[in-house]
Design goal:
Strand order of the largest sheet: 3-2-27-26-25-24
Shape: globular
Number of strands: 37
Largest sheet: 6 strands, antiparallel
Distance between the termini: 47 Å
Helix content: under 10%
Length: about 450
């Protein structure tokens, strides 16, 4: 049972090894105890590295081995999705929630409250050998990628990627190849697929336990390339966020009990951030980045260039930040704790004066609404619309823009409700709220 946890220590900014000191205490309180079974011994005795925690409307969604769990704040209780029984269970959260186990895929359009099973493509079932099973599902700009793997009678692992452009109603085979090949050749069994601002796809490669290397695809996932020197690149993905033109990746796989933080702009050249061993990384509703290592909860207000310790991590291996700025951690010993106040209130200072000004007019938004942005200098700029849970629901621009004022047409096919227009220039993030009315 957790007690109220208080932290009254100096908060340290990690910047080229030079600490800056702040003095703001952070408090956490227990939100729930562990609702899920934990095996007694053997291979599964340690907490899983594949663990996702997401803030959803009215609660949390926990995707972990042996279960997809939904926490309802009003009830103060967890409920398990009826289909999740396998150790190899996972989910991805975007405009919709996709969940899977080895022989099934489900989709939820109401934040994990209800689920609909998706018909899978025809999967291989070689007699006496490993049947084809689901490794991962990812949805990027309305395109769904389904990764699978099976073993032939010659003990060869075959990875395949299927693609759907109609929400999983129909599938086409995108690529197929042996799992475990290297530089310049097909390498399948791809999981944790992400898209860089350039359109290049990156993913964990290597198969059943989350991949051993990182690879990339420049043809929409049909061909994947790995690297000859994998030690110069992340060892699989745990989580990833975009920070301007950069992508930050919390790296690690099922087999490795360590974590790392890497960054890239192109998916080919990677830099390891030596000062942080990130178990998980996410973006808050204020645009700040949040990460956890074995000891600390960290915040970055400059796109990951510098990090400030704002609290303890309780050796957590998953975190999320809700729309109001409260932080949730899944500590190593089990359960979930929540910050007693929004993180934006608990820290001093803020982002520097922005090179970007952003607003929506008219607001409330209607058919003629436009997003207007003013740039002080020519820069790579990303403009997108997110809902109040931080999920990207529309991408308006990603690329260079000249200094001056620009207008982008707002996608008013959005459902009625409140949204946030977010602009990213370099390490700076600017947001403005607007409402869509019908």
């Amino acid at each position: 049972m957790f007690h109220l946890l208080r932290l009254s220590i100096a908060l340290v900014t990690i910047a080229l090894g030079v600490p800056a000191v702040f003095a703001q205490p952070i408090e956490f309180e227990p939100l729930s105890t562990n609702p899920w079974p934990r095996p007694d011994s053997g291979f599964f005795d340690t907490p899983p590295l594949r663990y996702d925690l997401h803030a959803m409307e009215g609660g949390l969604l926990s995707c972990r081995p042996f279960g997809i769990y939904r926490f309802y704040t009003a009830k103060g209780a967890w409920e398990i999705a009826p289909f999740s029984e396998s150790y190899f269970t996972g989910c991805t959260v975007g405009s919709r929630v996709w969940a899977w186990e080895p022989y099934g895929v489900w989709i939820s359009s109401d934040d994990g409250r209800t689920w609909m099973e998706i018909a899978l493509p025809d999967l291989e079932d070689p007699p006496g050998y490993s049947s084809e099973f689901v490794l991962d599902v990812a949805e990027i700009d309305g395109v769904v990628y389904l990764s699978t793997e099976y073993t032939t009678k010659f003990d060869e692992r075959i990875g395949r990627i299927f693609q759907s452009t109609d929400g999983g109603k129909s599938w086409s085979l995108l690529s197929e190849g042996y799992s475990g090949q290297f530089e310049g050749r097909l390498l399948q069994s791809v999981s944790s697929i992400r898209q860089l601002p350039s359109g290049r796809l990156i993913g964990s490669l290597g198969g059943t336990f989350g991949g051993n290397d990182v690879g990339y695809s420049d043809d929409g996932g049909a061909t994947w390339l790995a690297f000859e020197r994998p030690w110069e690149y992340p060892d699989g993905f745990r989580s990833a966020v975009l920070a301007g033109p950069r992508t930050l990746v919390a790296s690690g796989t099922f087999y490795q009990p360590y974590a790392e933080l890497w960054e890239t702009t192109d998916g080919i050249s990677w830099t390891r951030r030596e000062e942080i061993a990130a178990n998980d990384i996410t973006r808050g509703p204020d645009g700040a980045l949040y990460a956890i290592d074995s000891d600390d909860l960290l915040q970055s207000r400059d796109g990951g260039a510098t990090w400030t310790t704002i609290g303890p991590s309780f050796s957590a291996f998953a975190l999320t930040v809700d729309a109001e700025g409260f932080v949730y951690l899944a500590p190593l010993e089990g359960g979930v704790v929540r910050s007693t106040q929004p993180v934006a209130v608990a820290t001093e200072g803020g982002p520097p004066a922005s090179r970007l000004d952003l607003y929506v007019a008219p607001n409330p938004a209607r058919a003629s609404s436009m997003v207007t942005l003013a740039l002080l200098e020519t820069a790579y700029t990303r403009v997108e619309v997110v809902d109040l849970l931080g999920r990207v629901v529309a991408k308006l621009h990603a690329g260079p823009l000249a200094a001056g004022t620009h207008t982008l047409r707002l996608n008013t096919s959005l459902a009625a409700g409140a949204y946030v227009a977010r602009g990213v220039v370099g390490n700076e993030v600017v947001t403005t709220r607007f409402v869509v009315v019908r």
